[in-house]
Amino acid sequence: MLSQDIVYADTQNLLTFLDNHDTPRFLKNKEEASDSARYQQALVLLLTTRGIPQLYYGDEIGFSGDKSKGDGALRMDFPGGWKEDAVSAFSKTSRSVSQNRKFDFLQKLLNYRKGNDVIAKGSLKQFIPNDDIYVYER
């Protein structure tokens, strides 16, 4: 996501995302969706690096989907929104405990970003990765 920054005049105007309707979801299956630490780390990277972060619907509750199983796996309906829907993810009381943890974490992170211009608009300094560890400074 950041390796080609050098070719752009203003990286603050670039869109960053974990997934979208044309790519596999970051969380490809239920096992990955249950790994909260991996999910949280990805969201922290997305929302604290440069650019304009984009969240794809379902990211807020940890949707999973594998593109190798077809586009339907990436574009399933968001639960709820209609009276006849048996399940709804639009309110805290109707989401699962796991979905609420993911939603609450994302909400806290978004509020942190919103209240900190250095995170939302500041410069980004990247360090050379070492032993598969990526370090950046805002």
Write the layout of secondary structure elements.
Layout: E1 15-17, H1 30-33, H2 36-48, E2 52-54, H3 97-114, H4 117-121, E3 125-126, E4 136-137
Parallel strand pairs: 1-2
Antiparallel strand pairs: 3-4
Order of helices and strands: EHHEHHEE
Number of helices: 4
Largest sheet, in brief, is:
2 strands, parallel
Low-confidence stretches: none
Q: State the CATH architecture.
A: Alpha-Beta Barrel
Mean pLDDT: 92
CATH superfamily descriptor: Glycosidases
In which order are the strands of the major sheet placed? 1-2
Report how far apart the termini are: 16 Å
CATH topology: TIM Barrel
Domain module tally: 1
Per DSSP E runs of 2 or more residues, the count of β-strands stands at 4
Q: Helix/strand/pairing class, anyone?
A: alpha+beta
Give a brief description.
This protein has 138 residues and is α+β, with helices and mostly antiparallel strands.
